Amino acid sequence: MRVLGIDPGLTRCGVGVVEGEVGRPLRLVDVGVIRTPTGESTPQRLVHLERAIDAWLEEHRPQAVAVEQVFARSAVSTVMGTAQASGIAMVCAARRGLPVALHTPSEVKAAVSGNGRADKAQVGLMVTRILRLDAAPKPADAADALALAITHIWRGGARRRIEEALEKAGR
Amino acid sequence: MRVLGIDPGLTRCGVGVVEGEVGRPLRLVDVGVIRTPTGESTPQRLVHLERAIDAWLEEHRPQAVAVEQVFARSAVSTVMGTAQASGIAMVCAARRGLPVALHTPSEVKAAVSGNGRADKAQVGLMVTRILRLDAAPKPADAADALALAITHIWRGGARRRIEEALEKAGR
Fold it and tell me: Where does Mg(2+) 2 bind (chains A, B) (predicted)?
């Protein structure tokens, strides 16, 4: 299974593609950060972001897209831009008929490190180990995007196994 | 000048097209509400919204789009959906090279009623009078979209007049 993880943002949007199955080593396909010009208007920046995400989908042809769930509770001034960027990410994927899953930051932290309150450094370290990289992907948004993709493969795999077990038990 | 006003939302997105110039009676071109199925996932709903907004742009060919500015300060659970919907509205317009303006709710209320704290009923009443309608457009989201378009025409017109006056004074 090939998954594109997206850590949405207007200034920096992390994107990472991971391939693999539960119980087997996962493989990094590509990772990067989409930046949009801070001097431009939000609508223009969203158009940049849309084109860049479309290019990633076109190039890597993932089977699913995992997007970080944005919450309103943070009073940070960037939260609206992040929410708008996440809307663009979702629409780009859904338009192509791809399944889109939203994972919360604590789900992702728990999945890759076993601790829902892990810090950025811990997440980066675990992503590095899981994908057998030489160094943690920089910036943190890139590592977060990979962590999202890893979470999606693992959680999806676990769900499939449970469903298979239930089906077997039902027979 | 023809302006499409958009009051973004996932459950109800108000859309209203107004035509006219400052100092002359404005004309209602079309008004409506885009609804997306509550039972569907957010990515699917955003795709519905995108298609519907694109259809409005295609049919009415506005010269500018005015979108209500969304703020994070409200703790309402719908604010993220509203922000995502506003992102879609902006991207649909910007992709076509149309200028997009964001107006705050109090700017809109002040422009149409003279009172930045006017309630929904007052805004509906003023929209009805300004566009010489028989009754206030329903639901409130539809009236709000028209109020946004009216605000945009009036504010833009005022700005142009000031610029012209300054230019004349400079000569």
Answer: 68
